[in-house]
Amino acid sequence: MRIRDLAVTATLIPVLMLAGCGADESADVAASSPGAQKASKHNDVPVGDGAAQPESLPASDDPVVNAYYDYRAALDTMMKSGGKATKQLPPVMTPRLLKAYSQQAKYYRARKLRNTGATKVIWAKRTVAASGVIVRACYDTLAARTVDTKGRSVIPAKSPTRWVDEMRVEQHDGRWVVDGGRTTAQKC
Q1: Which residues, 6+ apart, have CB-to-CB distance to 100 below 8 Å?
Q2: DSSP 59
Protein backbone atom coordinates (compact mmCIF):
# COMPACT_ATOMS: atom_id res chain seq x y z
CA MET A 1 0.00 0.00 0.00
CA ARG A 2 1.41 3.36 -1.00
CA ILE A 3 1.80 6.06 1.64
CA ARG A 4 -0.74 8.25 -0.15
CA ASP A 5 -3.33 5.43 -0.08
CA LEU A 6 -2.63 4.91 3.59
CA ALA A 7 -3.13 8.63 4.27
CA VAL A 8 -6.44 8.64 2.41
CA THR A 9 -7.60 5.52 4.26
CA ALA A 10 -6.57 6.99 7.61
CA THR A 11 -8.54 10.14 6.78
CA LEU A 12 -11.60 8.29 5.50
CA ILE A 13 -12.16 6.02 8.49
CA PRO A 14 -12.97 8.73 11.09
CA VAL A 15 -14.91 10.76 8.52
CA LEU A 16 -17.09 7.83 7.56
CA MET A 17 -17.64 6.93 11.20
CA LEU A 18 -18.72 10.49 12.03
CA ALA A 19 -21.11 10.66 9.11
CA GLY A 20 -23.29 8.07 10.83
CA CYS A 21 -23.33 9.91 14.16
CA GLY A 22 -26.18 12.13 15.20
CA ALA A 23 -29.87 12.03 15.88
CA ASP A 24 -32.20 9.84 13.86
CA GLU A 25 -34.42 12.85 13.21
CA SER A 26 -31.94 13.99 10.55
CA ALA A 27 -33.10 11.17 8.26
CA ASP A 28 -36.12 13.14 7.07
CA VAL A 29 -33.93 16.17 6.41
CA ALA A 30 -31.48 14.06 4.42
CA ALA A 31 -34.30 12.86 2.19
CA SER A 32 -35.01 16.40 1.04
CA SER A 33 -32.60 18.80 -0.66
CA PRO A 34 -30.05 19.74 2.03
CA GLY A 35 -28.37 22.46 -0.02
CA ALA A 36 -31.63 24.19 -0.83
CA GLN A 37 -32.83 24.09 2.77
CA LYS A 38 -29.60 25.41 4.27
CA ALA A 39 -29.15 28.07 1.62
CA SER A 40 -32.64 29.41 2.19
CA LYS A 41 -32.08 29.43 5.96
CA HIS A 42 -29.00 31.60 5.62
CA ASN A 43 -30.45 34.13 3.21
CA ASP A 44 -31.60 36.31 6.09
CA VAL A 45 -28.71 36.16 8.52
CA PRO A 46 -29.33 38.60 11.37
CA VAL A 47 -26.90 41.46 11.83
CA GLY A 48 -26.51 42.80 15.33
CA ASP A 49 -23.99 44.56 17.49
CA GLY A 50 -21.18 42.14 16.76
CA ALA A 51 -22.68 39.27 18.72
CA ALA A 52 -24.75 37.84 15.89
CA GLN A 53 -24.52 34.08 15.57
CA PRO A 54 -25.04 32.06 12.42
CA GLU A 55 -27.89 29.61 12.41
CA SER A 56 -26.58 26.22 13.41
CA LEU A 57 -29.53 23.97 12.63
CA PRO A 58 -28.20 21.28 10.33
CA ALA A 59 -29.61 20.97 6.82
CA SER A 60 -27.58 17.86 6.14
CA ASP A 61 -26.84 14.74 8.10
CA ASP A 62 -23.16 15.30 7.23
CA PRO A 63 -21.37 17.36 9.91
CA VAL A 64 -18.58 18.23 7.45
CA VAL A 65 -21.00 19.83 4.98
CA ASN A 66 -22.78 21.59 7.85
CA ALA A 67 -19.44 23.08 8.92
CA TYR A 68 -19.16 24.65 5.47
CA TYR A 69 -22.71 26.05 5.62
CA ASP A 70 -22.00 27.54 9.05
CA TYR A 71 -18.80 29.08 7.67
CA ARG A 72 -20.70 30.73 4.79
CA ALA A 73 -23.36 32.06 7.18
CA ALA A 74 -20.70 33.47 9.53
CA LEU A 75 -19.01 35.25 6.63
CA ASP A 76 -22.33 36.70 5.47
CA THR A 77 -22.98 38.00 8.97
CA MET A 78 -19.56 39.66 9.11
CA MET A 79 -19.88 41.24 5.67
CA LYS A 80 -23.49 42.42 6.19
CA SER A 81 -22.39 44.11 9.41
CA GLY A 82 -19.64 46.01 7.65
CA GLY A 83 -16.95 43.99 9.44
CA LYS A 84 -18.31 44.75 12.92
CA ALA A 85 -19.81 41.32 13.73
CA THR A 86 -16.90 38.91 14.11
CA LYS A 87 -17.74 36.85 17.21
CA GLN A 88 -19.40 34.18 15.05
CA LEU A 89 -16.19 33.54 13.08
CA PRO A 90 -13.95 31.64 15.59
CA PRO A 91 -16.30 28.65 16.05
CA VAL A 92 -16.46 27.95 12.30
CA MET A 93 -12.83 28.30 11.17
CA THR A 94 -9.28 27.55 12.22
CA PRO A 95 -7.21 30.27 13.92
CA ARG A 96 -5.10 30.65 10.77
CA LEU A 97 -8.13 31.34 8.60
CA LEU A 98 -9.63 33.57 11.32
CA LYS A 99 -6.56 35.79 11.09
CA ALA A 100 -7.17 36.31 7.35
CA TYR A 101 -10.88 37.07 7.79
CA SER A 102 -10.13 39.42 10.67
CA GLN A 103 -8.08 41.44 8.19
CA GLN A 104 -11.01 41.43 5.76
CA ALA A 105 -13.32 42.64 8.53
CA LYS A 106 -10.84 45.40 9.34
CA TYR A 107 -10.79 46.38 5.64
CA TYR A 108 -14.62 46.52 5.55
CA ARG A 109 -14.64 48.74 8.67
CA ALA A 110 -11.90 51.06 7.36
CA ARG A 111 -13.56 51.50 3.95
CA LYS A 112 -17.07 51.55 5.45
CA LEU A 113 -18.21 48.69 3.21
CA ARG A 114 -21.00 46.20 3.78
CA ASN A 115 -22.91 43.56 1.89
CA THR A 116 -26.56 44.12 1.07
CA GLY A 117 -27.57 40.48 1.08
CA ALA A 118 -26.35 36.96 1.61
CA THR A 119 -24.69 34.37 -0.55
CA LYS A 120 -26.85 31.48 -1.66
CA VAL A 121 -25.27 28.05 -1.56
CA ILE A 122 -26.49 26.14 -4.61
CA TRP A 123 -24.94 22.81 -3.64
CA ALA A 124 -22.21 21.47 -1.37
CA LYS A 125 -20.66 18.03 -1.18
CA ARG A 126 -17.86 16.38 0.70
CA THR A 127 -14.92 14.76 -1.05
CA VAL A 128 -11.75 13.23 0.27
CA ALA A 129 -8.37 14.04 -1.21
CA ALA A 130 -4.80 13.31 -0.24
CA SER A 131 -4.74 16.70 1.50
CA GLY A 132 -7.73 15.79 3.70
CA VAL A 133 -11.47 16.33 3.74
CA ILE A 134 -12.65 18.87 1.16
CA VAL A 135 -16.06 20.48 0.76
CA ARG A 136 -16.69 21.46 -2.82
CA ALA A 137 -19.54 23.94 -3.10
CA CYS A 138 -21.18 26.23 -5.61
CA TYR A 139 -22.55 29.53 -4.36
CA ASP A 140 -24.15 32.60 -5.88
CA THR A 141 -23.36 36.17 -4.78
CA LEU A 142 -25.93 37.99 -6.89
CA ALA A 143 -27.85 39.14 -3.78
CA ALA A 144 -24.67 39.78 -1.76
CA ARG A 145 -23.43 42.97 -3.36
CA THR A 146 -20.71 44.96 -1.59
CA VAL A 147 -21.64 48.62 -1.27
CA ASP A 148 -20.18 51.80 0.22
CA THR A 149 -21.87 54.18 2.68
CA LYS A 150 -23.95 55.72 -0.12
CA GLY A 151 -25.22 52.30 -1.23
CA ARG A 152 -23.18 52.29 -4.44
CA SER A 153 -21.69 48.98 -5.53
CA VAL A 154 -17.91 48.79 -5.21
CA ILE A 155 -17.71 45.62 -7.31
CA PRO A 156 -17.42 46.08 -11.09
CA ALA A 157 -20.69 45.31 -12.90
CA LYS A 158 -19.12 42.53 -14.97
CA SER A 159 -17.81 40.63 -11.95
CA PRO A 160 -18.88 36.98 -11.78
CA THR A 161 -21.62 36.00 -9.34
CA ARG A 162 -21.16 32.21 -9.37
CA TRP A 163 -18.23 30.71 -7.48
CA VAL A 164 -16.91 27.26 -6.63
CA ASP A 165 -15.29 26.78 -3.23
CA GLU A 166 -12.91 23.92 -2.50
CA MET A 167 -12.40 24.24 1.23
CA ARG A 168 -10.46 22.00 3.58
CA VAL A 169 -12.49 21.02 6.62
CA GLU A 170 -10.82 19.56 9.69
CA GLN A 171 -11.46 18.67 13.29
CA HIS A 172 -10.47 21.44 15.69
CA ASP A 173 -11.32 21.17 19.40
CA GLY A 174 -13.89 18.45 18.64
CA ARG A 175 -15.69 20.44 15.91
CA TRP A 176 -15.48 20.39 12.14
CA VAL A 177 -14.21 23.79 10.98
CA VAL A 178 -13.06 25.28 7.69
CA ASP A 179 -9.31 25.66 7.28
CA GLY A 180 -9.16 27.48 3.96
CA GLY A 181 -8.82 26.45 0.37
CA ARG A 182 -9.53 28.10 -2.93
CA THR A 183 -12.40 29.90 -4.57
CA THR A 184 -12.78 30.07 -8.33
CA ALA A 185 -15.21 32.09 -10.43
CA GLN A 186 -17.07 29.39 -12.33
CA LYS A 187 -20.54 28.68 -13.64
CA CYS A 188 -22.04 25.90 -11.62
Answers
A1: 180
A2: S
